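Provenance

Sequences were taken from public entries as deposited. Structures were produced by running a predictor on each sequence independently, with no templates supplied. The record for histidine kinase from Jejudonia soesokkakensis is shown for reference.
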Amino acid sequence: MIRTAPKRTYWIAICVSTFLSLCCIFFYLQAKKKLDQEISSHIQTVGNVTVQDFERTVHDNIISLENLKDRIEESNSEFMEYFESDATRIMDQHPAIQFIEWIDHDGIIREVHPLSENRAAYLLDIKPIEYRYDDWMTNSLNRKSNMTSWVHLTQKGNAFLVDVPIFIEDEFYGTVTAGMDFESQFNELSKNFKNFTIQLIDEEGEPFYSSGTIDKESFAERSEFTSSLQPNPESNKTWSFQLVFGDSALYTERDIIQKTALSYGILISIIVGFLIVYFLRWRHRTNQQLEINATLTQLNKELEEQKLAAQEASLYKSDFISNMSHEIRTPLNAILGFVDILGSKNLLRNERLYLKLMKNSAQNLLGLVNDILDINKIESGEVEIYNQVFSPSENLKNVIATYETQIAENKLHLNTSIQTLSNSSVRSDSSKFDQIFTNILTNAIKFTPKGSISVAYTEKVVDDTLVIDVEISDTGVGIPENKINEIFNRFVQVENGTRKSHVGGGLGLAITNELVQLLGGTIKVRSKNHVGSTFSIRLPLSIASETEAKITSEIRDLSDLNCLIVDDNRINRMILFNILQQAGIHADSVGSGNEALSKSKYINYDVVFMDIHMPDMDGFETTEKLLQISPLSKVIGLSADVTVESIRKGKLSGMNEYLTKPIDKEMLFQTLNKLNKTKEAYQNIYAS
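Predicted structure for histidine kinase:
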């Protein structure tokens, strides 16, 4: 047993860590204090400047009236002839001025502009108005401008009434008066501020202007600025100015940096403490190497046990994925199968809509399951690349044709350009080729609410390789710049959180990228947010010989096939039976492996569809025994279990092909066509 280091070692480490942590806290508090002072100073500066701007705006409007007054006095009242035109010009220059009046020395409004909107005030005698006449007369006789509080007007609305007295030959002639509402000008001054609230209150305590929606109760005192504003230099009346700022982005960023630095500082302090412990303990144990070696041996043993446990956990993971794949795909197979069957019936419009929604939901769920299984295969390194002969241009056309109806239903315009050299056939994995462009095309449909989708295909021959270039463009939502470099990573989505508007697990593009690399190609993306995206795929594919291409293009009549369906699920048997029946193929069905063996003793079946998960005797054992009875039968594994391990066991048991549920009718008939060709080839060889 290793002897522990002296307690003094730990006390030294604790003291050093504590000292360093206290230093970090001290420097953090100093920095925070300085930051608070800076932000408070900044708010005071902004508040003072804003008060000056607001005050200057009010003064400018009053000065315009004083200029009009000066012109009337200098012209010995002759300028009154131009009162209306000059009032119009002043109002055009100062949007805060709602109207301009001339009130004679008796307190009667003799002129008002514009008249149509203020007719109720024309010839109004202000002497009976208590709040108005006394201040008006007192300030006018003292040759001072007068400004009321925020008052309700006789005509309508509210405004500040500003009176500028006119004296001609030292005799009181009346006042030039304007109704002012500064909201539009104050809004112009306020629009450059974000995350703020401004409120102005007149000398009577009446709020007359506010902007912003910040609740000042939510912020500290340093975020609030209050001051007084003197609207009229010749009056002792003042307005109350209140301004509340939310935390600015700069302050928040610096605060986060400081807190992060504090966290790192404390973490480093702790690490330093651990390093001290480690160093002192290492020095203390330099004479205990034998004991340390014994400890390492024990640790190696434990690590080996952990490794075995991890391998066992990995096996459990594979079993879990296998079981979940089977349990989820089995009901999906039933749902999609019955949807296809019901789709051929004469249904009401609403019933067809519900059927379509049901199919879309089931296909979305199936897509998520497939993505998870594909990622699992890629992670385990057990993805198989099949060597199949096909025409890439024709495959792409088929993929596009599959989604033409959906594109049209979404009211999108489809543009295609397929430029081929000679419809060359290639040797590669046809299904993975189709999956690549299916993923990209469905992505374009999903993220394009309006506009168009374009598909451009070109090819060129380089030595014995057909290099194809495909661009799929859309006018959809696009990809933000901060997401463009990680869009091919797993579980990365443009939208996140509870406000997502598109379904998906964030695996489609990751799988597509992996598949493109498996086929030796490259994929790139260009995108602009809210404009659209363009995915460019280049694949170098080996050119197939003319003989291979010719054999592949042949299609056989399948109506002469005699098939047996082996599945313990009655619904799955019904669905497959209906699919085969629509193609004119005769089929029997049984619910267990024992029944399949009994049938095969008396009937030679061309093709046997074999489920995997069955009671008493699973599909692998049934296949081995059935081929002993009927060696010429072709067995197609058909299961919701799509794990690599199940597919491998299926091939080892003698299955010719392995298809997955829910049933892909196109893949099903392609497989039957291929097996039918193989059957005829064997018959020809046997006949010769």
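The two ends are 81 Å apart (CA to CA).
Residues 496-505, 681-688 have pLDDT under 50 and may be disordered.
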